[in-house]
Amino acid sequence: MITFSRTMVTHRKPTNHPHPKVSLRRMTLQDYTPVIRLWSQGNIPYRPQGRDSKKNIEKQLRQPNCFFLIAEVDHKIIGAIVGTHDGRKGWINRQVVSPSYQKKGIARRLVTEVERHFTSMGIDIVACLIEEWNISSMQVFEQLGYTKHTDILYFSKRKSMKV
Ligand SMILES: CC(C)(COP(=O)(O)OP(=O)(O)OC[C@H]1O[C@@H](n2cnc3c(N)ncnc32)[C@H](O)[C@@H]1OP(=O)(O)O)[C@@H](O)C(=O)NCCC(=O)NCCS
After folding, report:
1. Whose Cα sits closest to atom 16 in ligand 1?
2. What CATH number corresponds to the domain at position 28?
3. Is 156 within a domain?
4. pTM (2 decimals)?
5. Dist CA 117 CA 119 (whole Å)
6. What range does the domain containing 15 cover?
7. In principle, which of 4, 63, 93, 138 could form an S-S bond with 82, CB 3.0–4.6 Å?
8. Per-residue pLDDT tens listing for the chain (163 residues)
9. Whose CA is nearest to atom 34 of ligand 1?
């Protein structure tokens, strides 16, 4: 697992991509099934009996430190991202764009919106964890102005493998 972080003091690079008519909005529980489908398509780990169960997502959607965003084209969900914060640092998770809409600047828009949300709360550093095999995602975050930290190891403790 490699950590990326971005301190939001630099100017944002405007996207050069022409992108289709995309709108962003907060996720609701009605979006659960299409969002889960997108996560699976993007090989994002999915814990149906743990933190990703419908009941748990419903709880997370109500939590003030969770910011779930989706991207839509003609009411079809084609991208999603989860922002969370611990009061000091923002975290980006579960970023995904449907394969046929990739490389059109949609992830850039989603990340920029999450960063804007954190900035409005006075949180000026955003980080994300990327698995070592996911080279393309690392390249995406580097393009978005994130710095790679190879000197940090990720430790976790879980009650079960389901969580
Ligand atoms: C990672 C992902 C969300 C990127 O979505 P996207 O909408 O295609 O990304 P964007 O078009 O906004 O691209 C943002 C920048 O990254 C670059 N980029 C996009 N895909 C890239 C790739 N596969 N390899 C290298 N760079 C890439 C773009 O050129 C762009 O840079 P630029 O604006 O300077 O030209 C998408 O590839 C995806 O869903 N992957 C599978 C799920 C995943 O791995 N998620 C990350 C979990 S940590």
Report:
1. 140
2. 3.40.630.30
3. no
4. 0.93
5. 5
6. 2-149
7. 93
8. 888 999 875 545 555 565 669 999 999 999 999 999 999 999 998 899 999 999 999 999 999 999 999 999 999 999 999 999 999 999 999 999 999 999 999 999 999 999 999 999 999 999 999 999 999 999 999 999 999 999 999 999 999 988 8
9. 143
